[in-house]
Amino acid sequence: MATMPTPMAPTQAPATLFTPCSVDSLGSSGTTATAPQTFLKFSEMTPSPAPSISPSVLPPSFANLAQGATYRPVYHHWFYKKMVEGKVLWQPFSMSDSLALEQAFTSAMISPDTRVATDGGRYDVEVLRRRRSAVYWAEDQSEVRRCSWFVKGSMDIRYVPYEENVATMLEEEYRIASTSNEWNRHVPLPDGEVIIIHSPNAIAHHTRSVSPDVWGTNSPQMQQKPRVVKRGMDEFDISEGEPEKVDHLLFLVHGIGKFCDLKFRPVTEVVDDFRNVSLQLLQSHFKEAVEGGRAGRVEVLPVSWHQALHNENIDKRLDNITLQSIPRLRHFTNDTLLDILFYTSPVFCETIVQAVGSELNRLHNLFLSRNPTFSGGVSLGGHSLGSLILFDMLCHQVPVSTPSPAPTPTTPTPAPDGLEVSGDEEMKTLGCLKTRKARLSRSVSYVTIGTAGTGQPYISYPQLVFRPKAFFALGSPIGMFVTVRGIESLGEDFSLPTCPMFFNIFHPFDPVAYRVESLVNSDFAKYSPLLIPHHKGRKRMHLELKDTLEHVGAALKQRLMESVKNTWNTVYQLAMFHKTD
Q1: Looking at domain 248-399+446-526, does it have CATH number 2.40.50?
Q2: Residue ranges of the WWE domain (predicted)?
């Protein structure tokens, strides 16, 4: 019977892997012989010499693997600084924009003039200079960072990225701690604050505060609650980015004042809401078409004219005549409500329309230069006074007519008075034109009286270099201004010369909005405006409340009528019963 060879005694384990059970030897029969357990204090242990390891290979320790702290380089994402309601916020670029910036940054062909188009082409980023600039409108340049480490205080909502040099220093300390498994590393910052890397998932930023010591003097000390430090982009919600294909271009003209809502945001920020809603509708209603490349996005660009009107000379003249009482209300009036009077002024009306027209043409040409493959349509939208400006401008556009073929020469028959005699068909046509002229004379032509109605003897309206597909008037006072100009009716034949579609969109509670369709046909005033369906398949809150109250009122009325009817029947039956007696 063959016997199993006696195994060699195992090599003594290092002190860091000490176990209280000592193993003496293994029996030849396969059973293990254990000695009595001996417990030693950690200080009494004699560490065994470490095995020889090649200096070029450093395997991670078992404890390091157990904690999952194997070092991996951090992912860098690009952020830009933005002012929102007076607060500084760091917004992440979309995933596609950040990848484009990272690719340009790591490229061997990068130069100080390297620019990357972001945000659908509305901004350019100078990669090495770390600057972000608007393309289509005037805006202060913003700072750009290549971010990987972030910090958040106990009272903060968002993480704030560290400066790039601080993030590089933290990443190097994290790499050393991860590969050597030596944590609790203190990283001093130039301002005297300290970041302590306790573990891969516990990193704290200790700030210094000034407080009085026992002698009454101020001395810096560490704060009680350190700030949380985060490595990487795990908890950030990053959008994928806008589709590259653009199907339609929409220009939006603002109304009175330089602010467009109750948050005092300029038109450049308000149009972001239009753009975001359109992108949401693409994902919710046309997702398959977008993914298949059959549908693109709608690009929305703002058109501003307030700065062209309120120059230093005008504002100074207004300040000289403005009373000092109730300054805030008077400043609000000068900055907003006076825009209406400026538009009816004999001098400033042309300044406004020329500013809007030149800005529309500039933006259109610039957009085509940056999007040479664009073949979609262009539409115009205006809010409040901006819709009136566009309406007047579109009414005075001259359509480019196609050249007609040369007429065939004919020999006219001279009349006794030297005039040419027309045929029967031409006489009928002339009669129709006379009838049409008589009908139009009863409803004053808007184009004829439009310039005089604005208080101008003559206004030179700029001509657009494109033909808009549609015109959207949002909360528009067009109907009121047309009526004030003395125009009783636009006529059923009214149309914008170069724009085939006109939509008057308003909220029923908007005090500035007026109807327009009754100026085309007075009978339309009897009909209620058409309700635009909500994109989520429901009605707006005020409409839902109105319908609910109407249903409740109808139900109460029905129950009251039934109760009165039943009571009346009971009284009648009692009266008839006593009458028979």
Answers
A1: no
A2: 64-146
